[in-house]
Write a sequence for this structure.
């Protein structure tokens, strides 16, 4: 069996959705002739059995800052800002704390907060490749440091290298730094990826963006996927209420539940939905602005924030829900982005309600698979909610009607199959 060294800073059980793609590859690539050896940072627990992992120590760029602020050392500092602001009773979405963290990151986080992992990852990767040569290297980002490590390993050992982008690097529409830093970092991106034999990303729109910058590069599209071992079968018992559940982080200014809240308020006022039937659950960091928004729409009794929970608990909340809520990005530049939770939702086999944003790859996936419906405004969402609620009242629950054959192409098994084809192509 051929071997591939997978360079990924994020890997379970490190608590980040970025680790799910490389985990799926490590689990399912062997079915297509490739054994994965994963090079990652020291994990906070034991990796899944049967997966070969090379762990290295690392020094977190913001480690001292996280400790002083009482934050989780395993989580990205920016993803914990909402929790920190709640603890400090900061209600403004643009506070001096946001300014300080942004300025700090501009300088200290170049090219990313994991940059101090590079030297140790290189040492471990070089040692492994001397002892046990591989046929290919595959790096996946973010963070970009994974690509920097893989590029240096490729240059030293002359092994074919595939660079995978779950998120784009400097072309990311939510690139958080100044134009000056973007210009400097873009040169680093071009220099680093000039060594890559092929690039991979998750959607056609993102592939077009990559091609516009990395001209002449071989670029492939491989979507993310759900783990077939996590499919909700047999189906879990559903909640007695008409429960709409969202799991994960919620980014103010980029996502909002407001279209749903507005539609529910109108349907309740019109007597089309009984308020005692409705429960909207948000599983993730608790946000004060969400509570205020729910109260402004008269939904304080219907909207509950359940806080951070273990991933297994979040999956259970998904499987028992009548509907699963997906909040799309409110940015036309993000039409090529699939959120990782979309694939978890497919595994839950519950109807998906996507709200907000623009017509994008999420709409196309839902239309293709029949796994749910999407609307951006209350006039679009009202008939969808009426239909689901009517079924809930008449049948006691909302049925999932997704096309299993079409959903299967979004599994991690099929994702691994397509990656194997890319690896085969660069090794010819």
């Amino acid at each position: 069996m051929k071997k591939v060294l997978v360079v990924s800073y994020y890997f379970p059980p490190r608590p980040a959705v970025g680790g799910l793609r490389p985990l799926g590859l490590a689990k399912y690539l062997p079915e297509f002739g490739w054994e994965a050896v994963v090079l990652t940072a020291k994990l906070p627990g034991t990796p899944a059995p049967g997966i070969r992992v090379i762990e290295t120590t690392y020094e977190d760029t913001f480690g001292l800052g996280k400790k002083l602020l009482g934050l989780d050392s395993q989580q990205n500092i920016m993803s914990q800002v909402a929790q920190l602001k709640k603890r400090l009773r900061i209600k403004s979405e643009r506070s001096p704390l946001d300014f300080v963290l942004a300025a700090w990151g501009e300088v200290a986080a170049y090219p990313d907060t994991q940059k101090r992992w590079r030297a140790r990852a290189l040492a471990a990767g070089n040692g492994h490749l001397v002892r046990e040569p591989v046929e290919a290297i595959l790096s996946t980002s973010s963070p970009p440091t994974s690509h920097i490590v893989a590029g240096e390993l490729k240059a030293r050992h002359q092994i074919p290298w595939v660079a995978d982008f779950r998120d784009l690097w400097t072309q990311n529409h939510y690139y958080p730094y100044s134009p000056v830093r973007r210009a400097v970092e873009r040169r680093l991106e071009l220099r680093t990826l000039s060594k890559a034999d092929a690039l991979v990303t998750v959607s056609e729109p993102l592939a077009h963006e990559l091609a516009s910058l990395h001209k002449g590069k071989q670029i492939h599209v491989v979507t993310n996927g759900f783990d077939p071992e996590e499919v909700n079968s047999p189906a879990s018992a559903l909640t007695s209420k008409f429960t709409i559940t969202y799991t994960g982080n919620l980014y103010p200014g980029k996502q909002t539940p407001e279209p749903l809240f507005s539609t529910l308020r109108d349907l309740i006022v019109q007597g089309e939905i009984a308020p005692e039937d409705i429960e909207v659950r948000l599983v993730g960091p608790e946000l004060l602005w969400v509570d205020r928004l729910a109260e402004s729409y008269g939904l304080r009794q219907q909207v509950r924030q359940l806080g951070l929970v273990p991933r297994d608990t979040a999956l259970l909340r998904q499987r028992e829900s009548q509907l699963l809520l997906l909040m799309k990005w409110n940015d036309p530049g993000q039409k090529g982005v699939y959120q990782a939770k979309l694939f978890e939702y497919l595994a839950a086999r519950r109807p998906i309600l996507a709200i907000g944003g623009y017509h994008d790859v999420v709409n196309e996936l839902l239309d293709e698979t029949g796994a749910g419906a999407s609307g951006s405004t209350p006039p679009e969402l009202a008939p969808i909610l009426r239909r689901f609620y009517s079924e809930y009242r008449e049948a006691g629950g909302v049925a999932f009607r997704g096309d299993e054959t079409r959903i299967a192409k979004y599994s991690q098994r099929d994702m691994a199959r397509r990656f194997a084809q890319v690896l085969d192509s660069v090794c010819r």
